[in-house]
Description:
Layout: H1 11-22, H2 26-39, E1 44-50, E2 56-61, H3 71-74, H4 101-107, E3 110-116, E4 123-129, E5 132-139, E6 144-150, H5 157-162, H6 166-183, E7 188-193, E8 196-201, H7 207-215, E9 224-230, E10 234-241, E11 253-257, E12 260-262, H8 265-274, E13 287-293, E14 298-299, E15 310-311, H9 314-331, H10 348-355, H11 371-384, H12 389-398, E16 416-421, E17 425-430, E18 433-438, H13 439-456, E19 462-472, H14 475-483, H15 485-490, E20 496-499, E21 502-509, H16 518-531, H17 538-552, H18 563-575, E22 589-593, H19 594-600
Parallel strand pairs: 1-7, 11-13
Antiparallel strand pairs: 1-2, 2-6, 3-4, 3-6, 4-5, 7-8, 9-10, 10-13, 11-12, 14-15, 16-17, 17-18, 18-22, 19-21, 20-21
Helix pairs in contact: 1-4, 2-6, 6-7, 6-14, 8-9, 13-17, 16-17
This protein binds adenosine-5'-triphosphate and magnesium ion (MG).
Amino acid sequence: MYKNSIKLLPQSVANRIAAGEVIERPASMLKELLENAIDSGATNIDVNSMEGGTKLLAIEDNGSGINFDELPLSLTHHATSKISSLNDLDAISTLGFRGEALASISDVSHIEIISKTKDSTSGGKIVSHGGKIIEHTPHAYVNGTKITVKNLFYNLPARFKFLKTNSREFFLLKEVFEASALANHNISMSIKNADRMVSSYKKVSCIRERVLDYLGLSPSNDNLIEVEITKETFSVYLLCSDTSVMQATRKNNFLFLNGRPIENRGIAYSIKNAYTGVIPREKYPYYFAYITINYEKVDVNVHPSKKEVRIKNEREISGSIYNAIRREFEKMNKLVTVDLNSDIENNHHFNVTNDYNSFFSQSNYGNNESESFINRVNSDFNSEASILNDYNKESIELNINPNLNEQVSNFGASTRALGQVFSSYILAERMDEMYIIDQHAAYERLNYERIYKTIVNKKLEYEKLLIPLELEYRDYEIDILIDGKENLNSIGIYFEMNSKTSIIIEDIPLYLPKTTKIDFIIKDIFDNYISKDSTDSLERLIKSTCNTIACKYSPKAGDRLSIGDMQKLIYLLESENILTSCPHGRPFILRISKNYLDNKFLR
Ligand SMILES: Nc1ncnc2c1ncn2[C@@H]1O[C@H](COP(=O)(O)OP(=O)(O)OP(=O)(O)O)[C@@H](O)[C@H]1O
Ligand SMILES: [Mg+2]
């Protein structure tokens, strides 16, 4: 086989490739620039962007500024004013520490920095194109720094191609901006899109005020629960929604660690879990959790984007947040029964279930989340069944089983439904086998398949709404919907712009559940589309739409079913050759042979 000889890449090419690691897109660049402005002690930060930040991203702060002589160093790899030795890495109190961000940005763009420190009489300017300094001159400026980045990835076409539409890139910029604004209530901040103000915050004296500004709520609003935890090694300030808030997506779920927006699955999971039995499981609360830990307990030097952090006492923190929220609900008398979640994993019942894994015919469908996580979630949810009864009443009305009312004629031959246990599982038998079917998962799977087939086989039929539906959105969200029009049309959703901030829908596809709350369903689909990154893939949009509808509008655990309903469900599962796992990949049929029982009873 022909093989190229090994050559050293020219430094400029190597730098460009490395820069792509740190700066993935305009949003990651904004994150770095905001961090620098925050580290500089600024109390005012203004951002402007053109074409989603690809053509231009400018950020102005009134912080410490950079000395004229040090301007070239600020663009040099591994040059930082924030740490000076390896030991400093053990306790990082600034957001930056690698001395990589500006150098990386300058390698793949046209960058200009104008800056002045308060001790110098005049300021300076430096311009670099693709990592080459082309100007370094004195320049009059007020105290602070203004950085303008133009033409991101002009010399890295592979990266440029990988960027999304401008509206999507702006959406991502705004996400980074909002998270940063929420983390820094003591800084006035604003962001513009093509010179038009999109979001701005006045500096305020406490976190709560900033969160209320963000949510657009008045200070008198008491939908927010406030929790404070103070322990020896950490403290938490948490604002979260009460039981009146139910969102379809994880929007407004924020975690901050020592002033840094972070993602942490364990902590996020325990907060969501604290709402078990208080809001329906498919809904999300909103929360803003500000965690402060001794710097020694955190390792931020895990990933080039600094998004991932390692927390040494993560379990202890998530445990106390969970308990604190549950206590609030107890005080509010929101918990209907005792907490069934504790130690559910050690519960005998679930061990038995696992023993039968070999009986399942499994297929891998949908997302591949980690097995143990799913089992955990699954077992928690099943135990909620009784608590969730109230919500299920509504979902029964909403249930979409369009053909379940059909006359089903020939089912005597195969599987026979025997009854329901715990209002959650169907018992059935066929020849010398018995089955236990998870009813929600089975309905969900069935509905998923039917909607999926309808869309993919282009068998869409429509119904005219009596009253056209008008939905309000922010203008940049409407941009995203309009960019995605073709894909949204492909799943049968047609809309027209009604005004700058609203759209109108006149026909809806028949596969949607029959309900008066059709606006909720469309909003679920749109919110999902806006918040998730499915712009470029019709396949992903179809799957997430099927998932959303099938999961939310199928009968749940806890819904009582008649023998007739059960029999029809089984019939349809059989006749449509439905795989025996739900769209999330969980098996939903447990099969036990007569032989097995005979053995167990020593027959
Ligand atoms: N807005 C700013 N105001 C004042 N100084 C700044 C600003 N932006 C950058 N600097 C200076 O330039 C240096 C380089 O910035 P850069 O972002 O590349 O590295 P860093 O922040 O030290 O580390 P990291 O790569 O982790 O962000 C900083 O250490 C800081 O001294
Ligand atoms: Mg930095």
